[in-house]
Design goal:
306 residues; 14% strand; elongated; 9 strands; disordered N terminus
Length: 306
């Protein structure tokens, strides 16, 4: 029997309580050298739901796994139909105050880097530079046969042409860009092959049950090693891909700070968890540091349109 990936986490003991004053975050950023590790919670205020918070998508949706995607043509049909629809929503998403705050901290030299578990591109759209996309990005597509990497917008145009009139109403959009559609809504959606070799196309993201590429993990480990502190924003740290960096920082004696409304799997390693929404919390932090976020404008880049 194939093992399913870890999708949830239940505390095995009492966790330290969250606080509502973000001053520890202010102090860490003021000292500089902070590495940000962000999760789906930072994008909820942009209209992209998270997995595990209140109303999180896992309550209604089981994410596509690598094993299912590669084993089943029907699973790929369902995925590409739903993802094609979700792509449109992601393309309309705009950076929120949390993304703009992270970009502003970077411009002011307070950060040593940004690692994101998100695939929406909103950190870059807000102006953050050299963002490490731990789980990849929905704006790229990779062929599982020849390895060719191409722009998602090119595939989106091909899919539009191959599936005229495909415009169902989704019950919801998930953090991985996968829209909630019924089998009837998916219908006979046409999946397209690689234009180079005819192979199977996959979004250039790390599915549940798939490993993050080793060179990317090692790059992130080096960033943690070089950082003065680790700031976790909007991640439950349920899966090991992010939790390992928290454990690394804590083992090295580096301060770990978490901003997340709900308890996380990394709280036992953290100096403090600030239990506030990301946008208001980081806006307060920026105000105390005298860092201007800048206003969101219609010209702001969309997450997947850069």
């Amino acid at each position: 029997m194939r093992m399913r990936p870890t999708l949830s986490w239940t505390p095995s003991g009492e966790l330290p309580p969250g606080i509502t004053d973000p001053e520890p975050v202010v102090e860490a950023l003021d000292a500089g050298g902070v590495l940000v590790l962000s999760g789906a919670g930072i994008s909820t205020e942009s209209g992209i739901p998270d997995y595990r918070g209140e109303g999180g998508s896992l309550s209604r949706h089981t994410p596509m796994t690598y094993q299912d995607f590669t084993a089943s043509p029907e699973a790929r049909r369902r995925y590409w139909a739903r993802s094609h629809l979700g792509w449109r929503t992601f393309g309309r998403a705009r950076p929120n105050a949390g993304h703009r705050a992270v970009a502003a901290f970077g411009r002011h030299g307070l950060l040593s880097g940004v690692i994101t578990q998100n695939v929406d591109g909103l950190h870059q759209a807000a102006g953050s530079e050299d963002v490490v996309e731990l789980h990849g990005s929905l704006d790229r597509v990779v062929c599982l046969s020849c390895g060719d990497v191409s722009a998602r917008r090119v595939l989106a145009a091909r899919l539009e042409e191959a599936n005229p009139g495909f415009d169902p109403v989704a019950a919801g959009i998930n953090p991985d860009g996968d829209a909630d559609l019924t089998d009837d809504q998916v219908g006979d959606f046409r999946v397209l092959p690689c234009t180079v070799c005819g192979g199977v196309l996959k979004p250039d993201v790390v599915f549940f049950g798939e490993s993050v590429p080793v060179p990317r993990v090692e790059h992130c480990r080096a960033l943690v090693h070089e950082a003065a502190a680790l700031l976790v924003l909007g991640s439950s740290l349920t899966v090991m891909s992010g939790l390992r960096f928290v454990r690394q920082a804590a083992k090295a004696g580096k301060p770990v700070l978490v901003v997340n409304l709900d308890p996380t799997r990394g709280d036992v390693h953290a100096r403090a968890r600030v239990a506030l929404p990301l946008g208001p919390a980081l806006t307060t932090v920026a105000d105390r540091l005298g860092v201007a976020l800048g206003e969101a404008t219609p010209a702001d880049g969309a997450g997947l349109s850069r």
